[in-house]
């Protein structure tokens, strides 16, 4: 009898939806006292949170709240002032900008909105935000032990400059603030500097990235100008101007050296008026090789072994595209190390990568008014765009 009762309480599990009740095995041994003492199994009850209904938000609750930066501590001289007095200080710009800027969020807490505050004080909503954020950036400069002379340089009209470096870290802000003051930058310059410093780590792997120092604001700005120079056609005035700007703001010698290589035409992205096959098209030897390359090759035998009319060192396998298949005889492939050397139209893409140009040596006449032709001009070879020329 005891054994049967014990078995009936051995283990019991019940699942109801997401609610589970588990009764585990009792530790009481089989003694007569088991009948006299009521059995109290160990019970574990877990209730899913999904059974507890969440209180719906009030129907009149405003789900979207405009961003408002946390209020800065109000200066001691303003703490005892009431709302009208604070409004008067803002309306008349009494004091330094970073001193009365904390009054703006304090008035927001009393029910004012940016439009209503603008109506009373004449400070636009954009300027309100700039003052508040600029004051917070200034506080972070003080807390990060930035040179007091640098911080003091922003006392007059510095809100607009400090606002532009708001997205930088505390360390970056200190370096950027110093660079802005020493180089007498305006708001646009501060904006470009902050963008360059923020964007620099994301450009890891770009050409010459390792030549610029991340901790130097000037190098970050220089790298941005260098990247902009690569968006222009090589040997163009816009590209040269961008490289010169990059050289002017660069701080490290390594960065200056990399930019000088570009300016002197020694860099990897140097514009070439010639492509290359073997030793280089544009040299006498390169031109000769294009002329002497086999004019015809074809597959022979059961396995289609390629046989050329004469021996040649370099070959390339091309897809069976229709223009390639149309080359009966005289096709030649010319390798260009930089695709930007091709005279694309202005609305075409520009990308620094190797490109293979397939030319038809059997065609010696200009058959299209607008096309690309492999030509030799004054001993220099290259690809030229001939427009409106037929001869």
Sheet-strand content, in percent, reads 5-15%
- What's the oligomerization state? single chain
CATH fold label of the largest domain: Arc Repressor Mutant, subunit A
User: How would you sum up the major sheet?
Assistant: 3 strands, antiparallel
Mean pLDDT: 74
Number of helices: 16
Helix content percent band: 25-40%
Write down the Rg.
38 Å
The parts where pLDDT drops under 50 for at least 5 residues are 1-36, 45-55, 266-285, 383-391
Broad CATH class of the largest domain: Mainly Alpha
Structural class: alpha+beta
Give the distance, in angstroms, between the N- and C-terminal Cα atoms. 117 Å
Total number of β-strand segments? Answer: 9
CATH architecture of the largest domain: Orthogonal Bundle
Strand order of the largest sheet: 1-2-3
- Secondary-structure element series: HEEHEHHHHHHHHHHHHHEEHEEEE
User: Given the C-alpha coordinates, what overall shape results?
Assistant: elongated
Number of domains: 4
């Amino acid at each position: 009898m005891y054994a049967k009762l014990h078995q009936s309480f051995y283990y019991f599990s019940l699942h109801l939806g997401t609610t589970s009740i588990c009764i585990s095995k009792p530790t009481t041994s089989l003694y007569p006292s088991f009948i006299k003492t009521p059995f109290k199994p160990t019970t574990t009850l877990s209730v899913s949170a999904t059974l507890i209904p969440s209180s719906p938000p009030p129907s009149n609750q405003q789900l979207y709240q405009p961003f408002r930066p946390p209020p800065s501590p109000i200066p001691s001289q303003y703490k005892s002032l009431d709302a009208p007095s604070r409004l008067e200080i803002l309306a008349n710009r009494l004091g330094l900008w970073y001193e009365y800027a904390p009054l703006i969020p304090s008035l927001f807490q009393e029910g004012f909105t940016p439009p209503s505050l603008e109506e009373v004080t004449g400070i636009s909503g954009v300027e309100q935000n700039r003052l508040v954020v600029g004051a917070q950036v200034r506080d972070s400069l003080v807390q990060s032990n930035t040179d007091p002379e640098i911080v003091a340089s922003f006392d007059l009209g510095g809100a607009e400059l400090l606002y532009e470096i708001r997205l930088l870290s505390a360390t970056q802000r200190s370096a950027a603030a110093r660079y802005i003051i020493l180089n007498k930058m305006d708001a646009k310059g501060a904006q470009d500097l902050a963008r360059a410093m923020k964007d620099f780590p994301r450009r890891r792997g770009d050409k010459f990235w390792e030549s610029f120092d991340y901790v130097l604001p000037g190098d970050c700005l220089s790298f941005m100008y260098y990247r902009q120079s690569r968006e222009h056609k090589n040997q163009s005035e816009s590209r040269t101007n961008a490289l010169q700007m990059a050289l002017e703001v660069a701080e490290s010698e390594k960065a200056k050296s990399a930019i000088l290589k570009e300016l002197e035409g020694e860099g990897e992205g140097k514009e070439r008026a010639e492509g290359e096959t073997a030793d280089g098209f544009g040299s006498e030897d390169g031109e000769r090789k294009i002329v002497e390359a086999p004019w015809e090759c074809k597959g022979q035998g059961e396995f289609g072994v390629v046989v050329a009319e004469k021996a040649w060192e370099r070959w390339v396998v091309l897809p069976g595209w229709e223009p390639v298949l149309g080359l009966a005889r005289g096709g030649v492939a010319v390798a260009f190390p930089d695709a930007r050397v091709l005279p694309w139209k202005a609305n075409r893409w520009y990308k620094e990568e190797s490109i293979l140009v397939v030319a038809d040596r059997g065609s010696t006449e200009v058959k299209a008014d607008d096309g690309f032709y492999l030509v030799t001009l004054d001993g220099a070879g290259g690809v030229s765009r001939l427009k409106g020329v037929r001869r």
